[in-house]
Amino acid sequence: MSVTGELYNVKSSDCFLNHSTNLNERTLTPEEMEKLKTDTAVVSDFKQKKLETDAQKNWDLFYKRNTTNFFKDRHWTTREFDELKNCRLSDGQTFKLLEAGCGVGNCIFPLLEEDLNIFIYACDFSSRAVEFVKQNSLYSPKRCLAFQCDLTKDDLQTTIQAETVDVATLIFVLSAIHPDKMRQSIENIFRVLKPGGVVLFRDYGLYDHAMLRFKSGNKLGENFYVRQDGTRSFFFSREHLGSLFQQAGFEASMNEYVLRETVNKKEGLCVPRVFLQSKFCKPVPSESIRQ
User: What is the residue range of 187's domain?
Assistant: First the structure.
């Protein structure tokens, strides 16, 4: 299995040393355990409320600073998820995909280049990111519909007809949402998925290196942190993630940690990366099975 992740605010010259999937969380060193144990200071309620109020503004500023240059195109998704590869086998029928949290299109444009029988709904919290998607030379309204959407509030059915999407992707997106609002976001996706449809998930796992890099004063809650630019990141255990999706009506077909080590040659660092890679299916009603 090839594995790919994203480093946010971590300079890296990646050299893959090893990688594996695991049902158990990463084992911490004594020093790492002590660091997490002593990091008990939590950001004030006033600042946390302001971060929530300014969440969209902070992501718009992120894309204003970085434009389309921050993340690399995700050519790895069809290697990791057979559901995206199999859309080529649709017998001429259009495969409908929802890319929830599309950013500037790093996932959707490689997919559009690879397959002619796909239509992508691409939404993002940042209106600036959506504009970058629409400005891309590969963007065509015949094959893609990009729109601004707050997954924690907006009903996707205002843009997408209920139960019409074959596959939805949540790739490094849910971690940026306040934990109290994650379930609502997942339920909104559930409503537009076809019975039997699947959510493909990739995000930060518990005890990832990025989690351990946060200094004291950046903690918002359990496994939840704020970066210097005001954007936030949550680090998932597989149990917590599985419970979130189960409560929203999904069934897990895969939910595993991806463990990886990367090297920054210039700084002589070897750092452990932890991601969760999962697939959650929308059940098919029993009446449909009998028919």
Answer: 54-208+232-257+277-290
